[in-house]
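pinging the channel bc i need a second pair of eyes. not urgent but kinda urgent?? the chain im working w is below, pasted from the shared doc
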Amino acid sequence: MTSINTPRKRFTRAERARQILDAAVAVFAERGFHAASMDAVAMRVGVTKPVLYDHFGSKEGLLLGCVARAREELLEVTSTAAAAATSPEDMLRLGFRAFFDYLDSNAPAWTLLYQEASLPTGEGADSLEGIRAQQTDFIATMLAAQAPEAGSVRVQAWAQVMVGACERLALWRRGAAGAGVSAEQATEYLMDLVWTGLAGLKR
């Protein structure tokens, strides 16, 4: 009987990096950053450990790569959702819903970002703060376009409140008390407070 050798699929560098990040998010979320090993990530991907170092340099670099990807994805989904809005109210609602939907569909990344993104050097925490700053700037830009008379400081303050509220509401949903709250319900609870308050100020 003739043996037929099936050639192994060759991945581009970008494809391999994406596979590594997928595996790293899963391993870091399961074990925690400090307990996770590069060996475990390499095994999950099916590559040797030097391949990981070639792409990301270190375990810390791999964590930061995971955070950077989540940051890009979160901005993409929220901005795409807001772009489809037909009114200022709809813009906020769609943006909030996209945020909660993203966290629900990327639970391992959420765990990594908000519970394990902490390094002795502080780089992980800085990256997480960068995500908060990104979302704050995004919301502030949306608000400024709808209420130019409010002034930049007031708009930034509103955005800080909204980002903080989103994050705390998301954390609450992960606990026992808020576990049954859907992304749609969380969005409406946030709109109850945020939109009513902004509409009242505008009137």
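so The radius of gyration is 20 Å. and The first helix runs from residue 13 to 31. — does that match what u expected or am i reading it wrong
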